[in-house]
Queue: 2 jobs
Job 1
Amino acid sequence: MGGKYRINKIKQEHTIIEDILPLLENLADLKTVKSIIPGRINRRSGSGMQPYLQLKYNTQTGIKILAKTSSSIQEIFVVTDYPDKTIELLKEEKLVR
């Protein structure tokens, strides 16, 4: 399927690391999250680690998160009007490290 489309709040324009999609779906369930935009994927070395999300910093439109697996890292941009509240919820729900 070509072009851009959304499933729930997750933009599906670029590839998403397969093991990360369930984590992004959990993130999309938060009411403060308007949209989730997956970005660039980079390779990394590692072995056997479970996928997880790591908070990085606030952006002009929300929050930057890194999605990590044993072989890849993907930038994830979360669009929200309430970045501090969203970060608080992410930590309460144990969705990020």
Job 2
Amino acid sequence: MKEERAAYEEFASVYDMFMEEIPYKKWLANITQILQKEGVHNGLVLELGCGTGTFTELMAGSGYDMIGVDSSMEMLEQALEKKAESGYDILYLQQDMREFELYGTVKAVVSVCDSMNYILTEKDLEQVFACVNNYLDPGGLFLFDLKTIHYFRDVCGDCVLADSREEGSFIWENSWFEEEQINEYDLTLFIREKSGLYRREQELHDQRGYKIDTVRQILMQAGMEWVSALDADTMKEATESSERIYIMAREKGKKNKIENRKDDRNV
């Protein structure tokens, strides 16, 4: 594997343009269907790894009071521009998912677009899950998606993707490392500047594939109750041929007491 470089710095400015085919509305329908089935029809919901805020905005438009957490300031700057345009009262926080802090508990925590795959060790994943458990209401729901090992190894594999637009172009090289269960995206960007010239940048993105049984065990170690794993396409029980799955878990008591803090919506 190559030496790690910063992810989602330069890419943030063109992320939405190149990711316009992501089925956010389908994901919204799936996520809200699950939430409502579990009794979460409104109220405070946290999105982890919110990125440029596209899904956060859709959730806010569906009646949820949203908080978005992401470690990339560049991505959050794009999210704040969308917030200014839509007028939704969304609270964005620049924080690491492994040690995020809120002002109190929330009804549900969601995470989409394989944000959890960016957590590369089981220890770190348990830290994320423990934080989630601490900031959920009693019996609150945790719902997140994952790309599967099958997708990384057999569908994505060692392929190269490319796209070119007037505003910019990218070359996306994928490398799967079986022993580490890591998929490495080597991203080369050509971003058009106001002068009309193109600036070349490179970023490295690593994602890890996890077995369902491993995720179940880590969730339980973090104090959560396992609920189910669904195929994101069929919304039925996940199988070995699933490419993206939804994992659902519940809050099951607190390991650490959370202080209630005043919710400052001006952040």
